[in-house]
Amino acid sequence: MLDEWSSSLLQTDPMRAYRMKRDAAHRTVQSKYTILGFISSGTYGRVYKAQSRDDVDTGGDGKAGKIHAIKKFKPDKEGDVVAYTGISQSAIREIALNREISHENVVALKEVILEDKSIYMVFDYAEHDFLQVIHHYSQTLRAQIPPAVLKSLTYQLLNGLLYLHTTHILHRDLKPANILITSSGTVKIGDLGLARLTHSPLQPLFAGDKVVVTIWYRAPELLMGAKHYNKAIDCWAVGCVLAELASLRPIFKGEEAKLDSKKNVPFQRDQLIKIFEVLGTPDEREWPGIKDMPEYNNMKRLDHFQNHLQEWCNSRIRSSSGFDFLRQLFAYDPENRLPCREALQHKWFQDEPKPTANAFQTLAAHQIPPHRRITQDDAPSMMPMPQVQPHPQGSGKPGSSASFASMTQLSGGGGGGYQTSGGRKKARMG
Amino acid sequence: MATDFWASSHHKRWVVDRASVKRARAEDLLYVDDPEYLDFLAIFFANCISRLGKKLQLRQRVIATATVFFRRFYLKNSYCETDPFLVIAACCYVAAKAEESPLPIKNVVSDARFVFSQEMYGIKTFPSDTSKLAEMEFYLVDDLECDLTIFHPYRTLMTLCYKEGSNVGAGGGADGNIEAGELGAGIDDGQRYWGTGEGRLELHEGALQMAWFIINDTYRSDLCLLYPPHLIAIAAIYLALVLHTPTRTLIQSQTAPGSSSASATGSACSGPTTANPTPAPVRRSSRQASNASSSSSKKNQQHHQPQDFVGFMASLNVSMPLIATIAQEIISLYTLWDRYKEDSPTSTSSLDSSAKGSFTSNQGRHNSPFTTGTKRSATGTNTSRSGSVTTNVSASAGTGSHAGTPMDIVREDGVEITPVFLVKVLLKMREGKWTDLAARSGLGEGGDGGGNGPRAVNKILGRTQAAG
Ligand SMILES: Nc1ncnc2c1ncn2[C@@H]1O[C@H](COP(=O)(O)OP(=O)(O)OP(=O)(O)O)[C@@H](O)[C@H]1O
Ligand SMILES: [Mg+2]
């Protein structure tokens, strides 16, 4: 029989034996990866560059020594104490979706490690991203991105997006920083933290996240307060990204109106004006649904603008099929906006120069953006680096809190080498 | 999620064979007095999830997802080594997030405490500290290998069938009945993910509701681990066709040589309830029809060929013997379930969306407004193991399960299988396991984790207590 002490333990903590078993079997992040440095901090966590440990323990999966990006979700804090507080909706989403998908143009999740009240998502490493490319051309080379590269990046982006859309996933946060490129010039869509299935969602899409998509890339139907939206919002964002690649600055660089104290979504006046300045004020002829949009009356009060997209394209895209392509991605009516599949078949991609599988194929070495900068973690206790703090084997199991170091306040930007300006930050809620 | 079930984690990693399911209970078997109790526990736990889910106002699909999580967790773990109630709460909590309808962790904890402390469970030790549930969530998600996207038979059901004369897409929305609203959910789910057939079945609303309820019930067994969801859906449709009185009547009229559907309708209703004798036109839509989106026009057709039921099943391009096997297993579940007594503490039972009443007759509390004409039909459902689905639809009553006398609930040894009893069984198993752990020298044994080496159990327990 159990003695009294054991049986009271059984009463108060019947999961003890289970946890011990699990903790004993757990392989820690530190035992599997060497942390090489800190890459960036985002809304939901911090991203590190890491290398698979080259020892027998890696199980000979052939991946030893491979470079990865490890995204560590920040644990929620209750006061000063880091405690288990439940995995965030965003992390669950990103994990659940990533486990189901696999495509050449979508960044691959290698594994997820749950440890020390934190979640570590281990991705294949991508050396570059669209934002980097834009910066490299605007700051260092001071030249336009060559058409072949422009087309290749856009084509592969659309190819990855087509896959997501075919599997009924809306990305909802496409922007240059979230679109990665490997050193061999393959585009990898990343950051599925806002992505969602459109497949018979139990909740209407608007219910969960009142605000989606970073303001500069946000489709007009969202700005007009649409409750229902679809894949077309991602296609709009592709148009914005293409325009940004072509002009090296955001095409619709509006100021975001902030949520009020009651978390009502405000009318995004400035962003709409930025769009209208280029595309003209939409009317019922080109967008019949516009009069039913919640913000229709607010929109009516804005100044009236003419469409200038053709002129905008003249100096930046310099191709009539390129203009037509962008025009169709920027269709106001979501119903008329170019879907991924048709976009991939657009004449622009058939015109010379054609897109290449390695987006950098046509470039000289100096034209390729430099490697991602990594730094020492500015929150050094977050994920101890081996050289700073040797990690004792066996600590840091899910059940123990002993080795957990709490996270310091996140700062924006980080080690990516870029100033993260306000507009690039997305506003997320709930 | 992805339309492609065949590319999903569900298909690739989580459809297992019966031997694996059996193996998962090996340790529990060491500590349970009667192996049959484990089967009752499977029903009991599903009911617990359902009750907690209803209290949390989760929709049926979320409850189903939570149940699949629970089953998957116990593919790797033992009841006797865990606290299933904490696991249940974690399953509901994660399922709500995975299905995009998250709940505050506080609510889950307080509702779980409330539900499980009720008399029928008598669990007073559910931790009030939310971090305990959050910690369990971590272990759970890890044991689930982060595969959180679950396919359910509901989707196949709605893809294959539409309600006669109603716009399914509108989503029902009967007041206060979650299930009714859900019947419409997901109708635009895209193509089926197997086969090439385009056939659609037009089901009497009662039959469709019944198939839905049968699917609800399958979560009380391990079926969701053993078979892909579309096969479970087809087995449920098959059973509903056979059991739904008006539909069965129609099929009988078709299979009786030389009879027209009109003449048969009045004569073949042998079930105790014939409240809704409307014949259900069950027919196959023309696979040749070039107009694929003709569902509305089909509805308007006044005269149509009575559906060739066999032909429809054949068009599904699935193994009919396998469907028959699944149907048989569903019936076995009802037979078992019929011997389990769980009285609802409140009038709004969590089990009111079950088709159990159509299979067994011992409990009269089945009160769905949707199953008029199916209740207590006590139909013989002598599914042929040969896989023939046409011949055994005769209404020979009473072959399906024990007839409903109170005697059936009490086993030969006088044991009455109730929640209170099963909680006792569970606690005894757990204590047995702990006693063994204490008697043996270490915890590493018996589990596949290992690695701790021999140590005095009290020392280990002490150490974990200090750490945890
Ligand atoms: N696989 C990867 N390889 C290399 N770098 C990566 C990888 N994934 C992410 N990063 C870098 O980390 C940054 C943040 O990653 P991610 O967008 O996934 O996180 P986030 O927290 O959602 O960020 P944000 O809210 O700013 O979008 C990326 O912009 C990129 O610079
Ligand atoms: Mg990002």
Describe what is shown at a glance:
The complex is a heterodimer of chains A (430) and B (468). In chain A, helix 12 packs across helix 13.
Total beta strands of chain A? 12
Number of domains of chain A: 2
* Inertia-based shape of chain B: globular
Beta-strand percentage of chain B?
Answer: under 5%
Strand line-up across the major sheet of chain B:
1-2
Averaged pLDDT of chain B: 71
Query: CATH homologous superfamily name of the largest domain in chain A?
Result: Transferase(Phosphotransferase) domain 1
Q: Which CATH architecture of the largest domain in chain A is right?
A: Orthogonal Bundle
- Computed structural class of chain A: alpha+beta
Strand content of chain A: 5-15%
The major sheet of chain B is characterized as: 2 strands, parallel
Count of strand segments of chain B: 2
Overall, the morphology of chain A is globular
Reading the helices and strands of chain B in chain order gives HHHHHHHHHEHEHHHHHHHHHHH
Q: Largest interface, by Cβ-Cβ below 8 angstroms: which chains and how many residues each? A: A-B, 57 and 73 residues
Total helical segments of chain A: 15
Domain Cyclin-like (chain B): 47-142, 200-328
Region (Disordered) (chain B): 253-305, 344-407, 441-468
Subcellular location (chain B): Nucleus
Keywords (chain B): Activator, Cyclin, Nucleus, Repressor, Transcription, Transcription regulation
What are the key terms here?
heterodimer; A: 430 residues; alpha+beta; Phosphorylase Kinase, domain 1; 2 domains; 5-stranded antiparallel beta sheet; 15 helices; 12 strands; 31% helix; B: 468 residues; mainly alpha; Cyclin A, domain 1; two-stranded parallel ribbon; 2 strands; 48% helix; globular; disordered C terminus; binds adenosine-5'-triphosphate; binds magnesium ion; CDK (chain A); Cyclin-dependent kinase 8 (chain A); transferase (chain A); Kinase-like_dom_sf (chain A)
